[in-house]
Amino acid sequence: MDRSGARTTGAIARLIVAALVAAAVVVTFASAAPVPLADFFGFFTIQGNLIGGAVAMVGAVRLLRGTPATTAWTFVRWCATTYLVVVGLVYWAVLAPLHAAGGVPVPWANLVLHGVVPAAGLLDWLLLRDRVRPPLRLLPVVLAYPLVWTAVVLVRGSTDGWVPYPFLDPAQGGGVVAAWVALVAGVFTGVAALLRLVPAPRP
Q1: Are 196 and 134 within 8 A, CB to CB?
Q2: pLDDT digit string, tens, across residues 13-25
Q3: Residue 113 region, left (φ>0) first, then alpha (ψ -120 to 50), else beta?
Q4: Domain residue limits, the chain
């Protein structure tokens, strides 16, 4: 396949991913209604997939236009891929064994948001060429968003009692929650660091 064909194929794949995210989120919201928006969008699964879907859509346009890779665009892809991969890892390793829906009670939408899209995000990073090696100094910035999300969840858990995932429930005790936070932070850091080490595909 020539370069133009590869770009077109990659763009179509990204548009499919964006459409899947939109459909799964809409169906999930409809099935959960009525639900406070702060609760629905408080799940990192929803946030991470929306970020991934938006990045996929923008990335499709960039591929079709032949826009060259930049450090800024690579950083955006790095963030989105990290968040999606962690969503998949945490769900299948922690939530699925507990039979927790992770905020997505509709079975096919659950599979899309916790399985299909995270896998597609990883393949996108591994196979599509529109990226460069991101500088190590940006690693803490990749982690800033999930850290802020965690802080907001902890504040909500200790005030109004709402938490998106059972391992963050303050009823377990501060030490247990702190251990889970440290573990998940380590997963975010490890995933982001490993993704950075993956060489960009040859142009």
Answers
A1: yes
A2: 999 999 999 999 9
A3: alpha
A4: 3-197
d(CA 149, CA 181): 11
Taking the complete model, does pTM exceed 0.70, yes or no? yes
- Give the separation between CA 140 and CA 145, rounded to whole angstroms: 10
SS3 at position 42: coil
Decide: helix, strand or coil at residue 10: helix
The closest of 75, 42, 105, 97 to 196, measured between CA atoms, is 75
Residues 162 and 39: beta-carbon distance below 8 Å = yes
DSSP states of 59-123 as a string?
Answer: HHHHHHHTPPP-HHHHHHHHHHHHHHHHHHHHIIIIIGGGT--TT--SHHHHHIIIIIHHHHHHH
